[in-house]
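Supplementary Note 2. Why include the ligand at all?

Several targets in our set were suspected to adopt different conformations when bound, so apo predictions alone were not considered sufficient. For every target with a known small-molecule partner we therefore ran a joint prediction. The input for nicotinamide-adenine-dinucleotide is given below.
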Amino acid sequence: MNINPFQTAISQLEDAAKVAGTDLDFIEAIKYPDRYVEVTIPLKMDDGTQKIFQGFRAQHNNARGPYKGGIRFHPQVSLDEVRALSFWMTFKNAVVNVPFGGGKGGIIVDPKELSEGELERLSRGYVKKIYPVIGPSFDVPAPDVNTNGKIMGWMLDEYEKITGTKAPATFTGKSLENGGSQGRTEATGFGGGYVLREVLKEHAVELKDNLTVAIQGFGNVATYFAESTAGLNLKIVALSDSKGGVYSELGIDVAAAEAHKKSTGALRGLAGTTEITNEQLLELPVSILVPAAFENVLTAENAARVKAKVILELANGPTSPEADRLFEQKEIVVIPDILANSGGVATSYYEWYQNMHNESWTKEDVLKKLDALMVAAWKSVHETKVKYKTSYRSAAYIVAINRIEEATK
Ligand code: NAD
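The joint prediction is reproduced in token form.
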């Protein structure tokens, strides 16, 4: 089934507005991005031929601060996906209470098919096209799926060359040598871990002991999230990547899984595990399910077969509205993406702040600040859930809507 992520985003907003009785004119005004640009990037390939790539940047809302959000390199990038992701960034930044609005960008490309040189030229080519609409006080991009600190470094270099400025705060998620922040790489996964710690305290009675976890994805977010659960008395029984998943009833050693993936390029074949598909992973009888790869993996098609008691959304938009309704009926606790994965952008804010003020904080400092910020965000969402007797998702939207409405006024 083809689910339009932007329709999902709008439906979540409308559900929350109904619960809170928000002014509908205001809701209409914040549904769509302020603007988006679509760019054409010609790329000279290593063999001398030229290929044309299509890229996007959507700027959703800047009532609370500069537009902010990642850049994704993936064959399935589309305008609707980028618009939806920029929308979620506005709400995510408001939930975690950092002074940014929402933006997102992407290029339709499979970066695995490019050489390092081609990837660099494509990254620089994208900046050549979008530089007039980005900048430290206007729109601050960051990494997302298949982009990283190295790519941010190329992009920043290109931006500074074109504009003749020294402006490290234009991009976040940079490498440390390039003005990045300590703790940014770990931040989204660790932030998810801090939120889960609070969820486990709140729902201790329903969840009981012997908690098991299945994580879809084993990229940046999933890996650090898995590491962050070390002190939570949980057993990770399943992990996956794009090639498939692995399962062990006895629990998977995360460090061994990382080493195996590093040496073989995949999780498959990890000692002591059996192979499962990504679809099977989502339906395992575990306590906590953590989608940490892609959107729209939990839909009307498979939701009835989901057995987890808690779903912690580390990917953006993993649950369709139909699946969400079913989970609510089944009293499955869904911790929404705009809260659960907001640790990354919160730390991007710390990076931006350090760049703007010429400061450099220690990792310990950053993670301590992040923990306090995530706990504060969790508390506002939980209190709102209790007040309106609604889902965590609608509660998170209500917290964000109120903050955006106040800033707009
Ligand atoms: P990543 O590229 O590091 O990892 C993505 C993971 O997903 C990889 O393990 C990959 O093998 C796996 N994957 C790819 N296609 C798959 C498929 N069809 N089925 C199952 N697994 C598949 O990306 P990331 O930075 O870890 O981001 C993961 C998710 O978290 C995305 O939805 C992203 O938007 C979201 N997110 C990331 C950040 C961040 O700071 N990196 C912040 C907020 C949200």
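Residues 297 and 318 are 5 Å apart (CA to CA). Residues 363-388 form the longest helix (26 residues). Comparable summaries for the other entries are listed in the accompanying table.
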